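We modelled the chain as a single entity of 309 amino acids. Its sequence is:
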Amino acid sequence: MKRIVLLIAIVCALASNDRLQAQTQLTEQQWKALDGYFQSTQNKDMVVRFTPGQGVLLAKLMWNNNEVHLTPESDVAFISKEAGDEGPIHIVFHKDSTTGVVDKVDVAHNGQWVRIKDYHPIEKKEMAHSPEQLKPFVGLYQLQGEATRYIQFMVKGNELILKQHWDDAREIPFVPESELSFFSRQIPQFTLAFTRDQQGNITQALAFGHDLWLKTKKPSLSAAQLKAYEGQFQSADDPDNQVRLVATSNGLRLTQLWDKKEVDLQALTDTYFYNAEPFFPLQITMGTDGKVQSLLLLGTQRFNPVRGQ
């Protein structure tokens, strides 16, 4: 009986797949209508080339030469085979109401892109500079509206290095095109536009023309404030996994109670702690009562206080 049920399920799945394929078959003319270059309305340096392939639409990202394979859900709606940080990418093309020509495409999480007739690779020229001129940009920056997203800028040689704090500290070198504008030699479309206040201090960085990163203030934690972070915490997913925080002279020491491993963490802000070796970020969320509400380890693992400890 189980074998019959399984066979029925397989047949139904195959039939459903056949129907799906039949619904998403495009004509040669429909494929051809999508061929061309499209430019982001948020960042003019970002251009994608759509090219029909064997039953898929190839999206070549001109700023880094990466390719995304898109399968049709209709003649204007597509979904990526590859999954990004926020899952599969959904895009929808739009036609001009007068001519019927495909002239725009909405890309999930990345706004609207418009068709352009000609594409010329971007050429950027590095401005003469010294390591000393790069030092004002050094610091920790937080993504606007995201409490746990940080990047750090430092100077190595004669380059400004961007270190991401959420993916094992990937590093990307930048050089200045002008006093406040930077670009990556490897990805010229990856730009940074810094802002300076009236006192001459760098306050923020605009990445890719739309991601705003705010420069954080240096921590001002007293011994008593660090002491307030001490305690024992358990994983929200597995209460048997517990950690302990103890204040040190310049930060916190985290002990994994399941294996006794210790990690010393330096305070980069009043609530964000970090150890580069090994890669280990820790974000503390405080409650309205002035006590620790939760910990976020490694950007994804939530730990809550163990009551009564």
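As a brief sanity check on the tokenised model: The longest helix spans residues 2-23. Residues 31 and 237 are 46 Å apart (CA to CA).
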